[in-house]
Design brief:
Number of helices: 8
Helix content: 25-40%
Shape: globular
Distance between the termini: 40 Å
Structural class: alpha/beta
Length: 262
């Protein structure tokens, strides 16, 4: 179920998402009786699945990763990279795991970009229905070399949070991340929509934090996020902000919800 993607992939492209998953979802991996993870739509080369296994095993050594691709040729090309804890399967949104296994995590990076906005909710629901109890779906988009990334985290009940992550030295302003919004949000970055208001307020806080630039982009980011938190419901551990991240409750940014600041 699904459509073949362009397959563009590069080594280390998803490091920001992986780092966040390892930190935030690591405890769930450790609690899981069967810590199996799906890298959905890994692309023309298997690097992202190989890297995901390595990173998640720092949190839970029992972790297994299954790379799932809808293009049979890509699956065939990935088979030489199989190893203990890593395998590749032909499939799509149905998540074809053997023996009725249910993943504790599904990562879908740069998969829904080519779909229509009105198709996203159904895909989210289908993937979330495949999760194990306590599981997480992480779906989002990044640039070609992973400097800028935005993703939505969802549980079986639906979307929970939106995380913005960047190599801070690459940003002129936080709204530069708008071009990497997931499909559910990218067409909503217009006046009157909450995500537009959030990025506008974040830019204002970034400008106000300019004096902190002399201490480095990280300190400027931390200060700007602190100011944004006065008006927006952030959901992250403040320590994550040092990594160039900020996480916002989905309800505050959801399309059609009431903007907090007009």
């Amino acid at each position: 179920m699904g459509t073949v993607t362009r397959g563009t992939t590069h080594q280390n492209r998803l490091r920001r998402m992986d780092r966040w998953i390892t930190a935030v979802h690591g405890p769930a991996l450790r609690r899981a009786a069967d810590p199996v993870v799906v890298d959905l739509g890994y692309g023309a080369a298997p690097w992202t699945a190989v890297e995901l296994l390595r990173r998640l095993r720092t949190a839970e050594p029992r972790t297994e990763v299954v790379g799932v691709e809808i293009d049979p040729a890509r699956v065939a090309a990935a088979l030489p990279y199989e190893r203990d804890g890593l395998c590749f399967r032909h499939g799509g949104f149905e998540i074809p795991l053997a023996g009725g296994r249910r993943p504790v995590l599904i990562r879908a990076a740069n998969v829904l970009r080519q779909y229509e906005e009105d198709e996203v909710a159904a895909v989210w629901a289908r993937l979330c229905a495949r999760l194990a109890p306590g599981g997480l779906l992480v779906e989002g988009t990044c640039d070609e070399i992973g400097r800028r990334h935005v993703w939505v985290a969802l549980g079986p009940e639906g979307p929970r949070t939106v995380t913005f992550a960047a190599r801070l030295g690459s940003l002129d302003r936080p709204s530069d991340l708008a071009e990497r919004l997931p499909k559910a949000l990218i067409h909503r970055n217009v006046p009157g929509e909450p995500v537009h208001a959030f990025l506008r307020d974040f830019d204002r806080a970034w400008a106000a934090a300019a004096p902190y630039a002399s201490l480095g982009a990280r300190q400027r980011w931390i200060r700007a996020v602190r100011d944004v938190a006065a008006d927006w419901p952030l959901a992250d551990d403040p320590r994550r902000r040092r990594q160039g991240e900020v996480t916002v409750n989905w309800a505050a940014l959801a399309p059609g919800s009431v903007s907090r600041n007009g």
